[in-house]
């Protein structure tokens, strides 16, 4: 799940995810464009420059309407970037996984995001 804009970039993302056999289940925000990201690579080092845009607009209502997708999953995965999308939704998913004894994999590669949400 995530949030995209109602624009060409969102359509491309949704189509490519579908082609890969993944159900993206995106919320489409009419007011905010789909986020973009540039990657700079030099040797073994890399950095990202992101315009998170619509990805920061994920509404709790979309999660609540789509909890049934979590019920059929054997494992739930989230990147730490979702912290900036909807921290409350991330906590709700974590509580759901704990209650249902489902594995919840959380990618901590963007450690700087955790500094802003220590509580």
Order of helices and strands: EHEEEHHEHEH
Q: What is the residue-mean pLDDT, rounded to a whole number?
A: 92
Strand % is 25-35%
Structural class: alpha/beta
Distance between the termini: 24 Å
In which range does the helix fraction lie?
25-40%
Pick out the low-confidence regions. none
Structure description:
- This protein has helices at residues 8-19, 60-65, 67-71, 87-100, 112-115; strands spanning 2-5, 26-29, 36-42, 45-51, 76-79, 104-107.
- The chain is α/β, with parallel strands linked by helices and 119 residues long.
- Strands 1-2 form a two-stranded parallel sheet. Strands 3-4 form a two-stranded antiparallel ribbon. Strands 5-6 form a two-stranded parallel ribbon.
- Strand 5, helix 4 (87-100) and strand 6 (104-107) form a beta-alpha-beta unit.
- It is globular.
Map the helices and strands.
Elements: E1 2-5, H1 8-19, E2 26-29, E3 36-42, E4 45-51, H2 60-65, H3 67-71, E5 76-79, H4 87-100, E6 104-107, H5 112-115
Parallel strand pairs: 1-2, 5-6
Antiparallel strand pairs: 3-4
Highlighted features:
single chain, 119 residues, alpha/beta, two-stranded parallel ribbon, two-stranded antiparallel sheet, 34% helix, globular
